[in-house]
Target: Bifunctional diguanylate cyclase/phosphodiesterase
Amino acid sequence: RAKRAGRQRFEIFDAATNQHAIQVLDMEADIRHGIADRRFHPWFQPIVRMVDRGLVGYEALMRWNHETRGWLAPAAFLDVAEENGSIEAIDWQVWESACRQVQRLPDALYVTINVSARYFRKDDFDQRLLSMIRGTGIAPSRIRIEITEGALMHNPESVITMLARLRAESVQAAVDDFGTGYSSLSYVHRFPLRSLKIDRSFVSELGQQGDAGSRAVIRSILTLAHSLGLEAVAEGVETELQAEALIAMGCGLGQGYLFAKPAPLAE
Ligand code: C2E
Ligand code: MG
Ligand code: MG
Ligand code: MG
Model:
């Protein structure tokens, strides 16, 4: 009986594993088709001066216009795409489309693109990015890259070199989800950066009971940003209360559902 129960358990586990493997394979094939059909596109979310809601730029966020499932956010496919490397093809498709669409915006506005750690291991990333940007006919200064804290710390020396090369060509960088990493505080001054994006997790606690910790973290990030001469952008601002608290603490720029959700540029 014990043996039998054991085998049954094993079979159940096995079936679940199989099911998962099949789902991943389906997703991989789906992604390949999506890339071939150019179904990955940037949506745009405004970055604003919070006091007057003046637009300063947009973050380009990828969406998959899936044949049967409609528009999908990264959570639905990013893990699989990163795991099998297809994220590279997707990223270049999304970035190029974002750059083309910049042409339709007033000159003063910039667009940020999300760049993952893997690109900083490739010595020709800056050249490839610049030739793509130039190919779309826009000034490189209108594109900024967003990299996470983790990516900065992955191989600091080569990241510093790459960021310096990009900056020499007027492509500036922001640190995404700032405050969630572990070691960046002691390192951040070494990187040639333009801005720090305060992670949504701190912003979302503002105005709630027991938000003293988040306030303290946000204040420290703002102090750090200001003393290093960097811009600070609050991510995930959803309420007036949060916007007011951020403005009162000296954070001028924000992004979040309070101002607008990501959408196709035309919207
Ligand atoms: P992220 O770069 O930190 O982007 C911010 C995420 O927060 C976006 O999710 C955005 O839609 C969401 N968001 C913005 N405002 C609010 C708000 O007020 N409340 C809440 N709850 N969420 C808000 P999204 O678009 O699903 O993207 C998720 C992540 O996927 C991004 O996080 C980024 O790490 C990655 N990603 C997005 N686009 C690209 C891309 O083109 N390439 C790569 N490699 N990664 C990308
Ligand atoms: Mg981002
Ligand atoms: Mg972020
Ligand atoms: Mg993120």
